[in-house]
User: What shape does this take?
Amino acid sequence: MRFSSLTDWLAWQETLHPTAIDLGLERVRATLQALNWRRPACPVITVAGTNGKGPTVALLASMLGAAGYRVGTFTSPHVIRYNERITIAGQHASSTSLMQAFERIDTARQDATLTFFEFNTLAALLLFETAGLDAIVLEVGMGGRLDAVNIVDADVAIISSIGLDHCDWLGRDLDAIGAEKAGILRSRRPAIFGARQMPGSIARIAAELGSDLRQLGVDFDWRRNGNTWDWRNRDMRHSALPLPALRGDIQLDNAASALAALAALSDRLPVSRAAIERGLAAVSLPGRFQVISAAGVEWILDVAHNPDAAVTLSGKLAELPARTPTIAVLGVLADKDWRTIAGELAGRFEGWITAGLPGPRALSPHALAEGLRAMGMHVLAECDDVATACARARQIAPAGRIVVFGSFLTVGPALQWLGAL
Assistant: This one.
């Protein structure tokens, strides 16, 4: 074996390919062929979208698991540990199984270089091949058409939402981005769109393929009734369902989309009303408006790394009782639209603390602070890393609310720091 630790494998994978992002299916297809990989016979659901992918995967896995099915999930990025990206029956992949998969991939690729994400995707497919699964749920990493996950022909495709993100790779407008996401659709198979505003490109591509397109607000919908909600689609309905354990009405969009996908697979994967209720109540997902109370401080952690996610975060904060002071800890990548992200939350905080993140894509805490000051924000501190920023925030607001957001690379270290308190 090339390396004896998962850490060494991952460090090597980050340097193997000339660029970190290189969309295309050729390398993955050739490696899978060399591995003699066979797609499992169980149903596969693929989830793409700008926001809402992670919660939709979590909701699907929770409801299917509550129904007694053995489910494999693939998501990215991870919050704390790489192993989180691949789960089998609710358990994270072991480091040993990951390294064994990496060794097989390394041999099969021959002289081809693979990106970090391609290694990750291939490892998931190898582990799922022999896991005896009843269902597989795959989260698309970026885009759809040329994403490594799209090597698998899914039985149901979900596009959770379309917004402006990864524009350098996917396009500068919603129609172009929608066309890239719609690359996961398949001919004469169900396609679920989980938002009320849909780019015309998605409807066009679905029509060209003959996909059975089902859109939120048109073919299925939800209505909240206090502490319960109703769901209906073309020929099925559920009344007075419990609210998902994930916070915010936006999660009802995701839950409604998950139910629409399960309805499309009901002949192969029937899920009872009782299992739906158990799954909604049990679902969990770190870093998506996650609320933690610690030593008198209310911490809210949300990855919120694009403008639409910032709008959602702002709306959720507005629904909470006021708490003073409310402080922001923000760490972002330089290639994100961080000015718009901050602007959407401008009125929610009495002060801001900027945090440095690891890696060459990170925006420095000083540059971020200067940008915030130019926008009229009150910057309280500039910190080299997230842990230092969290400690400083707790000093400033020992009985207040601290909102940590901007990236998975922000939320993960914050969770680790809070866990060490």
Residues 95-109 form the longest helix (15 residues). The mean pLDDT is 95.
